[in-house]
Amino acid sequence: MAAVANPVACFIAMFLPIRSLFFMGFLTMFGTGFGAYIMAMAALSPCPLLVHSASGTVVIVLAWILFVLSLSYVKVTIGVILRDEGHSALVWCGAVVQLGSMLGAVSMFPLVSVYGLFRSGDACNTKCPM
After folding, report:
1. What is the mean pLDDT of residues 66-82?
2. Do both 11 and 56 map to the same domain?
3. 57 and 105 inside one domain
4. For 9-45, what is each residue's pLDDT tens digit?
5. Alpha-carbon distance 116 to 26, whole Å?
6. Does 124 reside within a domain?
7. Residue 112 falls inside a structural domain
8. Which residues cross the membrane (predicted)?
9. What gap in Å lies between CA 114 and CA 130, rounded to an integer?
10. What is the rounded CA–CA span in Å between residue 120 and residue 112?
11. Residue 74 confidence (pLDDT) above 80
12. What is the tally of structural domains in the chain?
């Protein structure tokens, strides 16, 4: 579902770009809040909150959908705004997006590979408290 949210957000942003700085700031904070929730649940793995309940599944799926939807909309709207500024602005926008991807990968590598903060559970052997 989250994979569908990205093209839906991009489609909406291309035809309905809301260029309000307040609205974009709100959507950024909204998406960041869902991203923080997703990271917290991943850090609590293999026993996150509501691990064996249907509501836990619904909450995490909705969090992913709203996270991708809101931040994809903001990213495309920023691109639409910078498109009006010229080619150079779009080039810098692309460079900053790639820099952000690199910083995310560099910061996550030690958390996953060195410190083992995120780990998967074995469905047959992991016992989570209810």
Report:
1. 92
2. yes
3. no
4. 999 988 888 889 999 999 999 999 999 999 999 888 7
5. 33
6. no
7. yes
8. 21-44, 56-82, 89-112
9. 30
10. 11
11. yes
12. 2
What's at 92, amino acid-wise?
W
Asked whether residue 68 falls in the same domain as residue 94, the answer is no
> Structure tokens of 16?
């309905």
Give CA 83 to chain center in angstroms.
Answer: 24
pLDDT at 86: 86
Range of the domain at 105: 86-117
The three-state (H, E, C) secondary structure of 107-121, written as one string: HHHHHHHHCCCCCCC
Structure tokens at 73: 């909309």
Does 93 map to a domain? yes
Token pair 């691990």 is at which residue? 51
**What pLDDT is recorded for position 98?**
94
Q: Are 80 and 13 in contact (CB under 8 A)?
A: yes
b or e along 15-39 (b: 16 or more beta carbons within 10 Å of the residue's beta carbon)?
Answer: eebeeeeeebeebbebbeebbebbe
Are 111 and 53 within one domain?
no
Higher pLDDT, 48 or 121: 48
Answer left, alpha or beta for residue 84, where phi above 0 means left and psi between -120 and 50 means alpha. Answer: alpha
